[in-house]
Amino acid sequence: MNTAQASEDKDYVQSLARGLEVIRTFSQYKPRMTLSEVAQQTGLTRATARRFLLTLVREGYAEVDGKYFSLRPKVLDLGFAYLSSLPVWEVAQPIMRDVVNTLQESCSLAVLDGADIVYVAREPTARVMTIGLSIGSRLPAYCSSMGRVLLAGLPPAQLAAFYDRQKIERRTPRTVANMLALKDAVESVRRQGWALVDQELEMGLRSIAVPVRNRRSEVLAALNVSTHEGRTSVETMRTRFLPVLQDAAQRISAALPQ
Length: 258
What we know:
47% of the residues lie in helices and 20% in strands. It is α+β, with helices and mostly antiparallel strands.
């Protein structure tokens, strides 16, 4: 929400939004920052940034060491409150572990958040991929297998709104070239019930995904397996990986509460 929108919305608490922005400023690339760095990253004045940081310190969400501020483990409570509220999260973990044991490739579960997918569960293997992913990681929906599964599960009006907002960026030479190609790809996923994305997100990375549905057949999340193109052919992903994933998704759906 921009400043103009915020000023018109009496229910919008700008101070809370700014505090959340301060928390989001920290990342794996910037785990420790000075007051000046936080102020610069958020666009806040030093005095305002200082008040937010010291409040986070007092509440136990951050700590200060000399001139450097960093987040504390208590911040995880905010994310875990969401994860624990997902009916799919707890039941999915052991089933995803079975997938990894069977295929010897990493298995992930994601939900849609705006234009991105957000990882809410992940069972990795010892293999190292270029993209480092963990719970909370975000990837663009339009060029990821789980993203296309989740887009295909949207009601028509929501999908149309996504297309209106989305811009296509060619992340690799194989990424969909334009909006028409993306729409065709999503429609194909909707018809066949699964998505295979071959090196559109990153060269060398292949992934295949299926939907996880609730008892009303609504798509709650997407389940995928990722591999390297030099290790697994597209045909193997279709004939061997896909049945394992579909079975896992059905088991997760069957285990969900009514």
